[in-house]
Amino acid sequence: MGEPNHARRLTLIWLIATLIATPLVVVLVGPILPPGHASEQASGHVTDNTVLLGMATPVLLLVVIYLAYAIVYFRQPRGAALEGPPIRGNTRIQTVWLVVTSSLVLVLAVYGTVRLLADNGAGSGSGPKPVAKPPGPKLPVQVIAQQWAFTYRFPTYGGVETPHLELPRGQMIELHVTSLDVIHSFWAIQLGVKADANPQVDNVVFVKPAHLGRFEVRCAELCGIWHGQMFDYGHVVSPAAFRTWIHQQQVQFAPATKQLPPYKTTYLPEPVRRGE
Amino acid sequence: MSLLGRKLLAVGAAVIAVGLLIALYISSWATSFPASVAATPAPRQSGANLTLMTVAAIGPKYSPSHPEWVSYLVRRNGKWVHSTDYSVPAHSLVHVTVYQYDGDSGLRNPFLSQVQGTVGGTETIDGKSVRGIPPEEASHTFAIPELGILVPLPGVPEEAKNQCEFAPCEGAAHRTITFTFRTGGKGRYHWQCFVPCAAGWINGFGGPMQTLGYMDGFIDVT
User: Fold this and answer.
1) DSSP assignment, residue A134?
2) Chain B contacts of A256, Cβ < 8 Å?
3) Shortest alpha-carbon distance between residue B141 and chain A (Å)
4) d(Cα A274, Cα B8) in Å, to the nearest integer?
5) CB A147 to CB B106 under 8 A?
6) Which of A60, A99, A159, B54 is most buried when burial is the number of CB atoms within 10 A of its CB?
7) Which one is predicted more confidently, B2 or A2?
């Protein structure tokens, strides 16, 4: 009995497994992938994660099935110490390998670029001059990072600064992320927002909260001894509740607001000194 | 044993020895917390008292390894001790007194010059109740971010006579700050200074600002 056609057999097994597993992964695992649907951008991330997982599933299956197949069929006989025959070059395999991997990488690059542009940055920091901007009115909110807390400034509400973040549902938010000292990263996990907070850099992010609820804010850049404590909770509230809240903040922090410099997208990281 | 075997054994022994030394260093560093100091019951009012001191230089008496570092001290049984781990009772008022002996450094974020989270939203500075201080006069802050507490501490003016060089500072020029906050349930919360007060370090945020036991620590609500 001759040697079976391993390539054909492997391909068949992989193909069947892929046809079964990929839809299952997309349908069953996709909906529970992070970060959820708290914002339009977060929903976009779930879609992207599902697409990536769907594309990764056949690759993972190929590796695992080949490994299992090799263990079963290419096992070295007990007691033998033989090396396999040397293989030098196989144009067909090399071509297939190059075409498939190159295609995968190119597809991912195109997909990522399209999604970034279509989703106005997809919740990521897009620098001071974002290429993609959402149309319509936007609520500007400045995120100020400092060791070890985030504070938030609302230029359209008298420049008031607050220690916590509340955002109105259904309103496009234009976050301006910056830092007063070292490098931080603003990560509003459930909103699908992540942006580097660098001193003297205005890093713009767009996000549109979709549902009422709480979201977690964390620093995602190792920034010193209390980096792990640099977290807080923010809330998405109704537009009416937001107006009430921001008015309360304006009253509560009126003394501090008087001390603040005029709103700017970045600030010099020098402390104010007596007499200067 | 062959020469190769002996070499492998020697290399293995050396690796284990170095690994043990590194583990010893890390465990020693990770477990060298300052002793926790409990707030004392307040005799004439409900709650507990916590009495602190801030100094520009901790001095060789309290910190032989870093005598020039800025630091907090706490009073325990009538004596000043070098610790930044404080224990306070749950669901009660904590009356804090800070004797502030350091000069001003100024706040990087003027927003932090307003008192937050204390009873009445105020502090007293040398007996006068205020809701905040000019940001340029800040020397330090006592802040527990998780509890929403932030109290700016004004510095001793540069022109003041009898400035304290290093701790202990009693008798030198100082500001007296008092405030009260209410604790919630049990837990461990970090507290910190927001002023870039670590003189001589990049951006004022190295050394004592990055080392547990000087300008930051824990509040154990028990």
Assistant:
1) -
2) 110-114, 132
3) 13
4) 65
5) no
6) B54
7) B2
